[in-house]
Design goal:
Elements lengths: L1 H24 L24 H16 L3 E5 L8 H4 L9 E5 L5 H14 L5 E6 L27 H13 L1 H13 L4 H5 L9 E3 L4 E3 L1 H9 L5 H4 L10 E2 L6 H16 L3 E6 L6 E2 L2 H11 L4 E3 L21 H13 L1
Parallel strand pairs: 1-2, 1-3, 3-7, 6-8, 7-9
Antiparallel strand pairs: 4-5
């Protein structure tokens, strides 16, 4: 019996030690609260669940910041910068980016409901979508893409925390994290494997806006689009192609709930279909459904082959378009 208990103890000690380290370090920032979830100027960052960050920042600041203008969507929505949108809004607009990585329609509805229950006014809103927005959130069980438990009545709390704990136990992550914490030196393998994020950014801990000013400076000097950075890009033939329909009956129910919520709050809002690098036009039947639900004057489709998608230099890579493109989209919408 003693030898059996000893074996259990030997087996358990490393897990206990790792658990204590995890609680103390909180590398994914899902245990403790932070006044700033993304301090600028760090050489490397642990990738965080952006939906969790957005929810935490909103919860901390909504009373004092008194937000009344919101941008919803995936990481593509974060490049709709405050300075560009404010040109089209009343002078008392207070903007918040309520985004999440690989955001879904369910996620947008949950965030809008959460904002409404908080008592915030939503006078203005942008909802940035594309075909991927209509994937089911139930398919996302990776820690970076799961919904914040606060948005769904904590029913996924165990799964959410378990996913982050398992991500911490990943050998690749543990090796890179320990190496960086012990040496303080970033090494190429850490970012190459996607374990740690090396991208420099500027972050506003009130509006939850994240900017890549460093990359914009490289683009301005002609040093950004190097051979390595061009590899993910691919040649397009500028032929108009349509995506398969993605709006299901369930999607229509969720979209209608969003429309009712906006209507009840008397929100001035626009639904923006993103200009993606792939130049694939959103299915015509999907656009019709969106206009039927939200109104013809509120839905703007920038997908497909057009002046926004024509030039590769409009994109940081083939997934994210740059802030000046988002500014052009805003000018086009509000100019009409």
């Amino acid at each position: 019996m003693k030898s059996f208990l000893l074996r259990i103890l030997v087996f358990a000690l490393p897990i206990v030690a790792l658990g204590m380290l995890y609680l103390a370090e909180d590398p994914f920032k899902v245990i403790h609260d932070y006044s700033n979830y993304r301090p600028s100027g760090q050489a490397l960052m642990v990738p965080l669940n952006q939906g969790m960050v957005s929810t935490s920042v909103f919860e901390q600041n909504q009373g004092s910041a008194d937000y009344n203008a919101f941008i919803f969507g995936s990481s593509r929505s974060m490049f709709y910068q405050e300075v560009d949108w404010k040109k089209h809004l009343p002078s008392d607009a207070r903007i918040f980016h309520f985004d999440a990585s690989s955001e879904t329609i369910e996620g947008i509805l949950h965030k809008l409901d959460y904002v409404a229950k908080s008592g915030c006014e939503v006078r203005n809103a942008l909802v940035i979508i594309d075909a991927n927005t209509f994937e089911s959130g139930q398919l996302f069980n990776e820690h970076l893409f799961m919904e914040d438990p606060r948005l769904v009545g904590y029913r996924n709390l165990v799964a959410f925390q378990s996913a982050h704990w398992m991500a911490f136990l990943d050998r690749g992550f543990l090796k890179a994290y320990a190496d960086y914490r012990l040496t303080g030196q970033p090494k190429p393998y850490m970012s190459a494997q996607g374990v740690l994020d090396h991208r420099p950014f500027v972050y506003d801990s009130i509006s939850n806006e994240l900017r890549y000013d460093y990359y914009e400076s490289l683009i301005a000097s002609g040093d950004y689009y190097t051979e390595d950075r061009m590899k993910p890009f691919y040649t397009r033939d500028a032929k108009l192609r349509f995506a398969a329909p993605v709006i299901t009956a369930m999607s229509e129910v969720l979209l209608s709930s969003i429309a009712r919520q906006f209507s009840s709050m008397q929100t001035k809002y626009f639904i923006v279909i993103s200009p993606l690098y792939n130049q694939i036009k959103m299915n015509a039947s999907d656009v019709v459904k969106l206009k039927q639900i939200f109104g013809e004057q509120r839905v703007y489709d920038f997908s497909g082959v057009n002046r926004f998608t024509a030039d590769y230099s409009h994109y940081y890579e083939r997934s994210h378009y740059r802030p000046f493109v988002a500014a052009m989209v805003l000018d086009s919408i509000y100019g009409r």
